[in-house]
Amino acid sequence: MSSRLHAHIGTFRQLEILLALHEQGSVKAAAETCFLTQPTVSMQLKKLADAIGMPLYQQVGRKLQFTDAGLATVATAKQILQSCEELDMQLSSLKGLRSGTLRIACATTAKYFIPHLLGPFCERYPGIEVQFTVANRQQVIDRLEQGLDDFYVFSYVPEGLDIEVAEFMPNDLVAIAKADHPLAQQSQVSLQAFCQADFLMREAGSGTRYSIENFFKQQQFQPNIKMTIASNEAIIHSVLSGLGVSILSAHTLAFGENYDVKVLNVESLPIVSLWTFAWAKSRALSPIAQVFLDYVNTQGRSEMQQAFSL
Q1: What share of the chain is helix, strand, coil (3-state, %, to 5)?
Q2: How far does CA 47 lie from the centroid of its chain?
């Protein structure tokens, strides 16, 4: 701000006092609003009028009447102080991005792609701390209900919760078998034949099991469950050991280790779902969380889909 312009406008405090006088209608009320004495208010307003070079108001009976110069100064004061408030919010956000914490809880399978999403974001904001919790679907729902995190990642959004959501990218669940399994030698596999094979199922509470159970509720055939296993990696190694077939997220294969398993072309599969970010409506997003959500909705989604097109 130039010294000439500053001389005409006065100090921020003088502008605040002028607005208080305009809103309250008397020096006494303005003094009470600003927690100042009446002589101090009168002195500061006189300094402001002297700086502008014109009277700002006049006493007409028991009422104050603002001059044209006074009304113009009031209008400008409102704009200046509003801009200062907006600047303060922006600076607070920038401070938060330098030193705050981003908390994300995700279903087990999402652990394969979330780090790839966080990497570029953390490079852009190196000062932030990330708390990344991996759990099964039910545990993530429990965390959401307790309000422990900024975002929660699901393949199927839970119902009955007061949440906002942002769909991110597809999460197809595919049938897999060992490369020398008889079904792996077929170009197409009927759902009936697939269900006759020994099936390896994820544990209760997992999102993958939730999706599989929903799928088979609508089908004529049901899987022949041989084992219940508590992790994607353990299921893959069990498949490789010849213990059976399974259904897993394609991201488990794309982002995990290079396992020698075969994706089967099974009738009515894959099971189609979407990875979705959810957050509680009742909890305001922090500056970091808002910037991360903007990143997810723009660069993050496109970059992930291009880099890991399945």
Answers
A1: 50, 25, 25
A2: 49
Cα distances (Å, whole numbers) of residue 306 to 58, 213, 224: 68, 30, 36
In whole angstroms, what is the distance from residue 243 CA to residue 266 CA?
A: 19
Q: Alpha-carbon distance 58 to 267, whole Å?
A: 86
- Residue 204: in which H helix or E strand, if any? none
Long-range contacts of 50-56 (CB under 8 A, 24+ apart): 51/7, 51/8, 51/9, 51/10, 52/8, 52/10, 53/8, 56/18
Residue pLDDT, tens place only, 24-69: 889 998 998 888 999 999 999 999 999 888 999 998 888 889 999 9
Q: Taking the CB of residue 65, how many other CB atoms lie within 10 A of it?
A: 10
Of the candidates 177, 165, 302, 310, the residue with the CA atom closest to the CA atom of residue 235? 177
| CA separation for the pair 223, 179 (Å, rounded) | 20
Give every CB contact of residue 52 below 8 A, 6+ residues apart in sequence.
Answer: 8, 10, 69, 73
Q: Which residue in this structure is represented by tokens 């906002």?
A: 164
Q: What is the pLDDT of residues 111-166, one digit of tens each?
A: 888 888 888 888 888 878 899 999 888 899 999 988 889 999 998 888 889 899 99
